[in-house]
Amino acid sequence: MPGFQTQRMILKEVKRFAKDRIAPIAGEIDETADFPSDTVAEMSRIGLTGILIPEAYGGTYTDHLTYYWTVRELARCCPSHAMILLSHSLCANLINLLGGTQQKEFYLSRLAAGEWLGACAMTEPQAGSDLGSIETVAERHKDTYILNGHKHFITNGANSDIVVVLAATSRQETLFNKSLFIVPKSLSGFDIGRSENKMGVRASETTELFFNNVRVPAQNLIGSEGQGMLGILEAVDCSRVAIASIALGIAESAFDAARAYSKQRKQFGEPIGNFDAIRFYLAEMATDIECSRLLIENTARLQDRKKRHSKQASMAKVFTTEMAFKTVSKAMQIHGGYGYIKDYPLERWLRDVRLFMIVEGTSEIQKRMIAKHL
After folding, report:
1. 160 contacts 235 by C-beta, under 8 angstroms
2. Quick one: which of 247, 248, 249, 280 has its CA closest to 262?
3. Residues 6+ apart with CB under 8 A from 268
4. pLDDT of 165 higher than 60
5. Is 360 annotated in the active site?
6. Active-site residue identified among 31, 173, 360, 364
7. Superfamily of domain 119-226
8. Could you say which of 24, 61, 101, 212 is the most buried, measured as most Cβ atoms within 10 Å of its Cβ?
9. Averaged over 287-311, what is the pLDDT?
C-alpha cells in the first residue's frame, strides 16, 4: 500500500493531467460524443490503467482510496474519462480476483500497460439488476465454449480489446450457474451493435454486443464454472464506491462554481452570496459533500483491511449519487438563467450526474441491499 506522500504525489499528477488535458476538451466531446482516444492513451502513460493491478503483473497497485480519489479527480473535469477507467478497472479486477496465474500474466500486463482496453458485459435487455435472469449461454465443447447471447449498455464496448462476459454454463435457473469468460474482440462471431445516444456522460460509449457462436478457448474461463456471480459481487462493491466517487467529483465542481458565482454576481447592489437563501444553499452543499467524502473514506479503509463492506458500499453509492444530483441542481439554481445555458457547465453536469443513480445498481437496489444487511 502506498504511504501518504505517495498517495499525494499520485493524486497531484492526476489533478494536473485532468486540468491540463481533459478539462479543455470536456465540453467538445460532450457535444460530439467522440471517444477520447488520445487522452485515454495518455492515462495509460501516467499509470492510471494499471491502478488496481498488482505490481507483479505490471500494474501501479494502490490502496482503494487512491483509486477512488483518482476517478473523483477525473470526474471533476470529465465524468466520461472516469467511467472509461472504471470499466477498464472492473475488467482487470475480475481477472485479478478469480483468474489463474497464466491469465494474470498474459492479460493483466497488457491491461496495465494500456496496450488493451478492458470492458465488462453483464447487462442484457431483460436482465439489468436481476443478473440471475441473463440469457447469454456458454456451452462446453471439448476445449472450447460456444458463446451465444446479446449484451447491452456496455461501457467501452466498441473500443475495448477484451471483454469479461457473464454467461450461463448450465440450464439450471440459479445464480451459481453463471461463469465469467475473457473474450477478445477479434474472435469470429463477436459483433458490435449500436452505440446509445445518451443524455450525459456522452464521450464514454455505451454499446450493444452480440455473440453468435463465438468459440472461446476453455482456458479463457476465469476461475471455475459457477464462480461468476461470486466474483461480480466482490468486484462490483468496488465499482459502486467508484461510482460514488465520480458523483462526488461532479458535486464538488458544481459547488466550487456556485460559490465563485455567488461572490461575483451582484443583485440589489451586493453579491448574491450575502443573501441567506444562497448562503444556506452553500452550507447544505458543503455539509453533504463532506458526509459523502467520509462515507467513501470509511468504505475504502474497510476494503483495504479485508473487512466486510458491502453495506457501506451501498450506503456510499446511494447517498452520494442522490446528494450529487441535488447539489448540482442547487448550483444551477444559484446561477439562475445562466446555469441553464451551455456557456456554463452546469447543464452538462446535471445531465452527467443523473446517470450515477442508475448504473452499478439503482438507488432502489442499493436501499434494498442496505435493508437486507440491517
Report:
1. no
2. 280
3. none
4. yes
5. yes
6. 360
7. Butyryl-CoA Dehydrogenase, subunit A, domain 2 (2.40.110.10)
8. 61
9. 96
